[in-house]
Amino acid sequence: MLKLNNGIKYTLLTGAVLALTACANTNKTAIEKTPDPVVVPDQDTNPVETGVVDELPIADYAMGSQEHLDDIANASLVYFGYDRYDLTENARSSLQLQAKFLNEYSNVNFVIEGHCDERGTREYNLALGERRANAARNYLVALGVDSSRLSVVSYGKERPLSMSNHDQNRRGYSRVK
Q: Does the pTM of the predicted model rise above 0.70?
């Protein structure tokens, strides 16, 4: 083996350090993430405050279509508690938007779907899904929607949105017929 003197070892070590330093990224500017802007709704357009929406939003789709309904604050969905079919405050707010939509577009009919999570038997969940759909239907009728424009269907646990989140599957969904 060759024995190198300390001067050569020092020179080789210094050269290696310089080579590695030259390859390193010297431009270490931090990437600054700008926060998302905070949007504060006008006090006059808050649908929860009055319980009734004065105007529905206008966008790039056919008025009275499913896309129009879905754009109204995701108003076509209402959620239920475990083994429940009573309407929460959020569900009532969503159904108030749906009633406003139906009253503004009198040619539109709804199918209200009742869904459940996968717990329980098929028969039990079909019955619970129907009770959920009927709860939404009855509330819409109470808000002045003609009952002949509303039909219900229960899918029970057959059409889950999520395989891991039971809360998303316990829902009522209104779709334009």
A: no
